Amino acid sequence: MDSVGVAADAGPGPAWRSKCPWGAPNTTSISCSLADVMSEQLAKELQLEEENAAFPEVVAVAEGPFITGENTDTSSDLMLAQMLQMEFDREYDAQLRREEKKINGDSKVSISFENYRKVHPYDSDSSEDEVDWQDTRHDPYRADKPTTTPRRGFVGKGKDITTKHDEVVCGRKNTARMENFAPEFQVGDGIGMDLKLSNQVFNALKQHAYSEERRSARLHEKKEHSTAEKAVDPKTRLLMYKMINSGMLETITGCISTGKESVVFHAYGGESATEDKVIPPECAIKVFKTTLNEFKNRDKYIKDDYRFKDRFGRLNPRKIIRMWAEKEMHNLTRMQNAGIPCPKVVLLKKHVLVMSFIGQDQVPAPKLKDVTLSSEDMKKAYHQILNMMQQLYKECNLVHADLSEYNMLWHDGKVWLIDVSQSVEPTHPHGLEFLFRDCRNVSQFFQKGGVAEALNERELFNAVSGLNITADNEVDFQEEIEALEKRNEDHVQNHGKKLSRFSSSGDPPIYDE
C-alpha cells in the first residue's frame, strides 16, 4: 500500500502529523514547455526573484538619461560603442584622480589634470562634494594679484571713484612688480601680507636690485678673468700647461710667494728646444696679477718711462700688465749683463715670466729681513748693496724704486736683488725721488742692524748718484732733488730727448748721443 495514498486518505488529524519530517512536502508542480525553459526572459525573471529574496531592500536608482540595457536597443552597434566609450571614460577619469592624489599628497602647490578629463553629462561619479581644491587651478594659499586699472584711468563713480594714482592701488602694484626682480634679490611674500610700497621705496629697491645684479656679474667676470691670490685664471693656466707640454718645464710644484703685483710658483726645468738657451734645474714662474685694485699706482712707474711712454697711451689696463712683465724682463737683462746678482730670465709669455730660482730644493732663499746675520755678514751685505746700487745707477742706468729688505735675498753668502718691474731710469720725472726713498730704506735697515759705517740717506744718495747736493736738512735736500727733476723734464719737453746724466751745476746738461 502506498504511503502517499494513506496520508491523503487519512483526512484531518493532529497538527504534528502534517509537519512530520518524514512526510512528503505538499508541493504543486507547474508544467512548462521546453521553449519556456530556454527563454532568456524567463531566466532574467528568475534571477530578479532570487536577488529580491536575497536583498529585500531595493536601492532607488537616480533618474537620469543613463544608457542601460532596459531602455536601449542593444542591437545598434553605435549605441554599444557609446556605452563602451562611456565606461572607458569613467575609468580614465578615476585613474586621473588617483594620479593627482598620489602626486600632490599634502603639498600646498598642486597640479591638476582637469583639462585631460573626459567629463560626460550623465557621469554620476562627479559631484561637487568630491571635488577637492587640488583638482582646480585656484590655490587658496596664494593671494590674488591686484586688479589692473581700466584704460580710462579710474574705476567707480562719484565719491567712490578710484584713480590709477591712488596710494593704495599704486602700493599694491609696486609690491606685485617686485616679483620681476632678479631671482637673487629676495623680496618675500609681499602680496600675501598686503604690502603697499610707495613709488620712492620701490624705485630705490629697483635701483638696488639692478646694482646688485651688475655687481654679481662683475664679480663673476673678475673671478674668471683675473689672477687671484695663489691661483691663476684659465688663460694663465693654459700658458703654464703649454710650457709643460713643450718640455720646457717638467712640473710645477706650487706657490712660494705672493705679493701685491704678482704670484710666484716653483717649477722644475726641462729641456730647451734650442741649444743656445739653457734652462736651469729649478725655475721660478712669476705670474703678474691682472687685477688692478691691489697695485693701483703702477702706472706712475711706467707711463713716464721713456722706454714705454709711446706705447702706454694706446693700451688698455690689461695689456699694461704685459708691458709690466716686459719691463721687468728688460731690467733683469741689464742687471745680468752688469754682473749684478739677480734671477736669470728664461722666457716671457704675455704676463708670465720664467726665471731662475734663487734657492735650493724648492726652498726659496730667505729675505734679508728674515735672516739673522752676524756683524761681519751685515757689514759685508751693506758694502755689497752699496756697490750694487752704484752699478745699477751708473752701468745699468736704472733706479730700483722699491729697494728694501723685503726685495733683497740672502743666498750663498751674498745679496740678490729681485722685483725690478717698477725700476725706472734716472731721467724719469720721479727717478731721483725713488732713489732717495731707496737710500732711506737701506740706510735705516743697516743702521738698525748695527752697521756703524752705514751712511745716512743723504750721504748714500750722493754716493750712489754722484751728485753733490749740499743741504742742511732733509726738506731742502728734497727741494733740490725736485728742482733737478723739473729742469730735466723741461729740457725733455723742449728738445724731445732725455738726459743721460744729471749735473750739479746750474746749466742744464747736454744730451750725449
From TrEMBL:
PROSITE patterns: RIO1. GO terms for molecular function: ATP binding; metal ion binding; protein serine/threonine kinase activity. Residues 134-145 have a biased composition (Basic and acidic residues). Its EC number is 2.7.11.1. Gene3D superfamilies: Phosphorylase Kinase, domain 1, Transferase(Phosphotransferase) domain 1. One of its GO terms (biological process) is innate immune response. Keywords: Antiviral defense, ATP-binding, Cytoplasm, Immunity, Innate immunity, Kinase, Magnesium, Metal-binding, Nucleotide-binding, Phosphoprotein, Ribosome biogenesis, Serine/threonine-protein kinase, Transferase. The keyword Glycoprotein does not apply. Transmembrane segments: none annotated. Residues 120-158, 488-513 are annotated as: Disordered. It is found in: Cytoplasm. It catalyses: L-threonyl-[protein] + ATP = O-phospho-L-threonyl-[protein] + ADP + H(+); L-seryl-[protein] + ATP = O-phospho-L-seryl-[protein] + ADP + H(+). GO terms for cellular component: cytoplasm. Residues 221-466 form the RIO kinase domain. InterPro entries: Kinase-like_dom_sf, RIO-type_Ser/Thr_kinase, RIO_dom, RIO_kinase, RIO_kinase_CS, Ser/Thr_kinase_Rio3. Its cofactor is Mg(2+). PANTHER family: SERINE/THREONINE-PROTEIN KINASE RIO1. Belongs to the protein kinase superfamily. RIO-type Ser/Thr kinase family. Interacts with CASP10. Interacts with IRF3; RIOK3 probably mediates the interaction of TBK1 with IRF3. Associated with 40S pre-ribosomal particles. This is Serine/threonine-protein kinase RIO3. It comes from Probosciger aterrimus (Palm cockatoo).
